[in-house]
């Protein structure tokens, strides 16, 4: 490991130590036991093809560019730290950033499904943040839906020659918001309102979390752009291998 790579590892470790110790929480990761078994199974099954594609995507990337492993670890640590932090919302709920936009931009959305499920698994076991039975639902919203939209927004912005850091900001911000839209959808399906059914429930859930999630998404976009500036300074070679300076990720994924 080169001196530059060691510095990146130390930086990621310091970041995690400073912010990664979060209190036990049941934030907008859907908590253990909150979904019926049928919904847990359905969301878990829907995640399988994305996880398979993610496994092969990461395997191919690391086989061709082994030194980007450190950047992959940083993307995972970034997602773990940000999604572990909760902000009180209304009616006893809470919101948090997702941190998945960074990995989606650098490694593609499929790879982020693997990083995301690992993050969610550790959070469920170590922090009681989310749950094992709801792992499929949480993975689909945070590690699949959000990253795919973030990646699409980034690619679209770069296609129209939007400033690179502005593209990163928009991708991370909108990817965060889309995660919460999907989570609200999941909850609305599971718990339709007695008056108004699914749409009334969806409106309620989205309204509850919009209060804190909109400013959090903006903050996440800014933080992701700042982290990318740091990576551009200290990991230019690795980002070049990933195709970041050409406007995309390695091998066009």
From TrEMBL:
TM helices/strands, residue ranges: 36-56, 68-85, 105-128, 166-193, 205-231
Main localisation: membrane
InterPro entries: CbiM, CbiM/NikMN
Keywords: Cell membrane, Cobalamin biosynthesis, Cobalt, Cobalt transport, Ion transport, Membrane, Signal, Transmembrane, Transmembrane helix, Transport
GO CC terms in record: ATP-binding cassette (ABC) transporter complex
Keyword Magnesium among record annotations: no
Pathway info: Cofactor biosynthesis; adenosylcobalamin biosynthesis
Location of the protein in the cell: Cell inner membrane; Cell membrane
Assembly information from the UniProt record: Forms an energy-coupling factor (ECF) transporter complex composed of an ATP-binding protein (A component, CbiO), a transmembrane protein (T component, CbiQ) and 2 possible substrate-capture proteins (S components, CbiM and CbiN) of unknown stoichimetry.
Name by which UniProt lists this protein: Cobalt transport protein CbiM
Native source species: Robinsoniella peoriensis
